[in-house]
Structure formats: structure tokens, C-alpha cells
Design goal:
seven-stranded mixed β-sheet, alpha/beta, 11 helices, 267 residues
Chain lengths: 267, 267
């Protein structure tokens, strides 16, 4: 399929390369000549115009805060499939239902720079009008990927708890613990997680906090839970209420530490 | 050396086994017959009395909230070396300075059940009176371990930020995210960390919160940083101020993700 990727930031460039790797004829466009040059150097074939004529699919890989606006502008003018790949779906999907056009597909690739190909990588698909048809179209475009169908509210809630919350926890841990003495314990893994989180651009996390009501709710819940621990006459009761139902603690403990590739921490 | 380990909980049993593994003649005592039986089944030679006569070293592996009281009671009556292995040091060390006795050593093993032997494992040593002499004595007892000398305030602060804080973050993450939809992202590692933390007994974390002023301060700082993010007109500025000075973001990013054994998360 001939595919035009609009936006050649980190996401757009990665998507363009991945789509080319599964046999599509991919072109990339970005209004910034610098972004085009960077993508070109990374092996993406670029074009100097966003004209969608002649493409079977147009993939909008634009910044989060622009996705609804770009959908409103572009999708009525796209002859084939319009694909949005942004991180939040509630707002842009409402726009995609309004804007018309022959076929609109709203996905969120749940992987990043580490993906060498599409095979087996998860992509969330949030249906717009006809889930079956959109799933078929997305499967044809993202060949080999594992498409996970979920409604947009569930998706944005999952992003709040699986992306925004861990990122903010990483920032908080770093903010509080830096310049403090440390000892080699379980926190080493949290240090590495925090380093990974903060090595990314804080813009995405910031926009999730600003634009996702679910992310704000997750953070408000975090603050409530922390206040509960701090004000509890007996922190043990508060902590105990926060634990899951771990009937097989020993096995879980070992499995978790094996997964972390480290030995169990001291008592 | 003949060594008596007092307290056969998880820490006491582990210490008894490790000391036996480096050639000491170790006996363990616990007031609870069940604890003695469990330790015995795990290969520890137990005795029915805490009488310290005839031992070159007595290791107190008692619950955190008892360590100062036990030191006050026992250390004047110990003919040889009295060794405290508890997780917080400021309070018990003050007691160890008061209580007299020929030699008092205050350590904190920075490892746990995963340690198959002492070789190379870190142990914090917080000096009581004569750092050189206590270091020699601890080196002889914990043969092969890597002893790290630090003052007790630095140690307890490190425990606050490297033990209490990550544990509480694990509880908080679990409390807030459980029963919520999730997607496979960077949070998988945090899930595993939270599972590992909550598979442990919450008592230690609870006692750290109750008894360590440094741990409470760390948690108050956490709450302040979170409030700052939530009330900021522009979360980006707040997040950016929490990041370190990462001149080599790309390299760090890759290294952190390699360390985590997973691929980099999506943009």
C-alpha cells in the first residue's frame, strides 16, 4: 500500500520505518525541513508536500495537542484511509466520527524505539464506526502486529494508569531522592526506571497531565493514598489495605525478583 | 568463632545460615518454639536458652521496634561482641553507646534471601566508638562481605530514600492502579516492582514510616512534589525542574532500558 506519514517526530519516523519494513511504499512529510532531513538520514523517504492524492493511507503522527485539529482539517480530504496514532483517543475519536471521509482508523502503538519490526508488537485499536472493518484495515497496514481492540475511554484510562502514573512516579522518585545518600537495595530498579522516564522528553507526560482527565484523577488518587499513609495512626493498616490478595506470596516474590533479574531484598 | 543469633525471624535465620556458611559455629535462639522449629528445619542449629556464656559474638536480629530495648537489656551482659543488625541505626546506636560491654558492632546487611553466601554482599557498618576496631571485628564475623562504613544519620537517611520511599511508591502504585485497565508499557516493570514490594511483609515499611523521621520527611517531600505537579499551571515546568542534568540522554536511555531488560517505550 502507498502510505503517507504526516509528522516526522520520533513517533512518525518510527512508524514510517516500521511500515516500510513490512512492505509498504512509505513517504513521510513534516513542515519542518530539519525534521524531514533527520528522518531522511534515518532512512525514511520524504516528500515536500502533504498532498494526500494517490495514497491508500495517510497516517497522522502529529503532536498530541494537535491530533483533533489535524483530524478536523484533513480527514474529509483523504481519499483512502485516515489513521490517527496519538496517545489519547477520547477527544480525537469524537472528531474522527464528525469529520467524515471513507475510512478512519484510530490506533495507539504500545511500543517504541526498541521495536525492530512490527511482528508481535501490541497496537491498541479504538473503533470509530465499524470495528470489524477498521480492524481488517489496521491489520493490513500494521502487518504482523498484535491489534488489541478496546473502547477509547478504557484506552485513555489505561494510558493514565500505565503511562502517566508510572512516568510521574519516576519523576517524583527522582525529585525526592536525588542528592540523598542511597544504599544498594530494591530501589536500584526504581532508579533505573526513573532514569529511563526522565531521559524521555517530559512533554508527553506534561500533556497527559494537562489534557487527560483520567491522568489527573490517577494523580489525585495517588495524593489521597499518600495522605492516608501519612495521617494513619497505624500505617500498617493503611499499607495492608493497599496490597492485593496475594495467596501465593512466596511464589510471586520469587517470580517478581526473577523478572527483575535481581535477588530478593533484605527483611 | 562461636556465634549466638538471637531472633530467628527471616533476618535472623538468614544471618545464622550465612555465618555458618563462612565457617562459624552458629547457634540460634528464639523465644517462640515455632520460630525455632522453622529455623531448625531450614538447617539452623538452635538452642533452648539465650544464655550468652561461651559465645564470641551475640547477634541481635530482633524486630526493629525492639532493637534499642534489647541492646539496653543485653549488651552489658555479653562477654564478647554484641552485634545489632537492625534496619535503622540512630536510636539503637545511641543505646549501644550508653550500654557498655567490651565490643559493640552495629551493622545493616543490605541484601536478603537471594544471597547464597556472604562473598561480595554489601553490609553497612555504622561506628559506635572505634570504627577501625569495629570494622576489623565485623570483617572477621561477616567473612567476605563488602563492609561499607557510614555514620548512622547518613545510613538512616539512605534507608528512608532507598527502602521506605520505593516501598511506599510500590504500595501507592498498586493501590491506585489495581482494578484499572492497563496496557503493556514501561509500567510493566513498575508492576513487577510493586508486586515484589507487596509480596513482602508490610510491617517493616510500616515501622520505617512510624519510627524514622527521615522516612516521614521523604514521604512529605513526595507529597509536596506531587502537589506541585498537580497545581502547576504548566506541568512541563514542574516536571522539567525534577529532572537531573542528563547531558547524554540517548546513551542513558539505552543503558537504562538495557538494564531493565526491555525495549524503549513509545513516544
Amino acid at each position: 500500500m502507498r502510505v503517507l506519514v504526516l509528522g516526522l517526530g520520533r513517533m512518525g519516523s518510527a512508524i514510517a520505518s516500521l511500515l516500510a519494513s513490512v512492505g509498504h511504499e512509505v513517504r513521510g512529510y513534516d513542515p519542518s525541513p530539519e525534521a524531514r532531513a533527520r528522518a531522511s538520514a534515518a532512512g525514511v523517504s520524504t516528500v515536500g508536500s502533504p498532498d494526500p492524492a494517490g495514497y491508500g493511507a495517510v497516517v497522522a503522527a502529529v503532536p498530541l495537542w494537535l491530533s483533533a485539529e489535524v483530524a478536523r482539517e484533513l480527514c474529509p480530504r483523504i481519499p483512502g484511509m485516515y489513521v490517527d496514532v496519538s496517545t489519547l483517543k477520547v477527544e480525537v475519536n469524537a472528531e474522527l466520527r464528525r469529520c467524515g471521509g471513507p475510512l478512519r482508523v484510530s490506533v495507539h502503538p504500545l511500543f517504541g524505539r526498541g521495536a525492530g519490526g512490527l511482528a508481535g508488537w501490541p497496537i491498541a485499536l479504538t473503533p470509530i464506526e465499524d470495528a470489524e472493518r477498521e480492524l481488517r484495515a489496521a491489520s493490513e497496514l500494521f502487518r504482523g502486529a498484535e491489534l488489541i481492540v478496546m473502547d477509547e475511554s478504557t484506552h485513555d484510562e489505561a494510558v493514565a494508569y500505565s503511562v502517566a502514573l508510572p512516568h510521574v512516579l519516576g519523576y517524583l522518585f527522582r525529585a525526592v531522592s536525588r542528592d540523598r545518600p542511597s544504599i544498594p537495595t530494591v530501589s536500584r530498579r526504581l532508579q533505573e526506571l526513573a532514569a529511563a522516564v526522565e531521559a524521555e522528553d517530559p512533554e508527553l507526560t506534561s500533556h497527559l497531565i494537562s489534557r487527560s482527565p483520567q491522568a489527573r484523577r490517577a494523580l489525585e488518587e495517588l495524593r489521597s493514598a499518600l495522605s492516608e499513609i501519612l495521617s494513619a495512626p497505624d500505617p500498617l493498616a493503611a499499607l495492608s489495605s493497599m496490597r492485593g490478595d496475594w495467596r501465593e506470596r512466596g511464589a510471586l516474590y520469587e517470580a517478581a525478583y526473577r523478572a527483575l533479574g535481581c535477588s530478593a531484598p533484605g527483611p
